[in-house]
Design a protein that fits this description.
single chain; 283 residues; alpha+beta; Jelly Rolls; Arc Repressor Mutant, subunit A; eight-stranded antiparallel β-sheet; 11 helices
């Protein structure tokens, strides 16, 4: 699954639980830490396991049965069983956990909305400690299955608590940027202006621009361009949609304008990029 020159498997630990651990505890079958580079893509089915993806750095797009999720640093994605996953990465370091457990189905029923195959949670840095602990446990000569179960369930409890109880906003400025990023993701096919973004979160253009660059690392305009190009790359790699449809879905009303911006930033045309990187994935 995780192979090729564009991905480095920094850590892989597999485990086959038995007896009490299999019947009564949460357990992982595979635990990975990956470093994915630009234009890395893969496609697989989760089959009889649930999956967790936690982003330490970088960004990636994940398609679950034709629904696209955008993930950046500190974001989490939890995925159901029997789900087709298509992933494309941009300089990303992430944890991937393939897991199951006696109460896993019950948690998934509560965490994931009906009709969807996954749930993403943004800015979820308070759970990274559990992934780090799982990583530490993987180094033990004898697997401590009880502690593995404890940390996996802790992640699920935090997701459940975020959904049902986390209504307080501890950092209004950080929340404003999260809202702005969500607005960009939901309106990427439309015209997005700096004035519109600032107005959406209730800040002046000057204050919003400074805050956005401080929190995200680049100005809002550059982020929108990067998001559109990353989404376009994901769709070029993982679908067979016509380039003109991809351009429109990414907010470019002019196909020629899309070609020019893509070539300027990627050094190649959309069609050439697709031919070089296309995965065998149906649209």
């Amino acid at each position: 699954m995780w192979h090729g020159p564009q991905v480095d498997v920094l850590l892989h630990e597999s485990h086959s639980p038995a007896g009490f651990a299999k019947d009564s505890l949460f357990h992982y079958r595979n635990f990975y830490q990956l470093q994915c580079n630009d234009e890395y893509s893969t496609s697989f089915n989760t089959a009889e396991a649930y999956y967790l993806f936690y982003i330490n750095s970088g960004s990636l797009f994940v398609t679950l049965n034709n629904q696209i999720y955008s993930l950046t640093r500190n974001d989490l994605l939890v995925v159901k069983k029997k789900t087709q996953v298509t992933l494309s990465a941009s300089q990303s370091n992430l944890y991937v956990v393939e897991f199951d457990g006696k109460l896993a189905a019950d948690y998934m029923h509560e965490i994931i909305e009906p009709g969807k195959q996954g749930r993403s949670i943004v800015d979820f840095s308070n759970i990274v400690m559990f992934f780090v602990r799982l990583k530490e446990l993987s180094a033990y000569e004898i697997m401590n299955e009880a502690y593995v179960s404890l940390n996996l369930e802790a992640i699920l409890v935090e997701i459940y608590a975020r959904k049902y109880y986390d209504t307080d906003i501890e950092n209004p400025q950080n929340y404003a940027i999260i809202q702005a990023l969500f607005f960009i993701e939901q309106n990427i096919a439309k015209k997005i202006t700096l004035e519109g973004l600032a107005g959406f979160v209730g800040y002046s253009v000057y204050h919003f621009s400074r805050l956005f660059k401080k929190e995200v690392g680049i100005p809002p305009y550059e982020y929108v361009i990067k998001f559109r190009l990353d989404l376009a790359k994901h769709m070029l790699i993982t679908t067979k949609k016509p380039v003109k449809d991809i351009a429109k879905a990414c907010g470019y009303q002019s196909e020629i304008n899309f070609y020019n911006i893509f070539r300027k930033n990627m050094g190649t045309s959309p069609n050439q990029f697709r031919q070089k990187n296309h995965s065998e994935v149906k649209a």
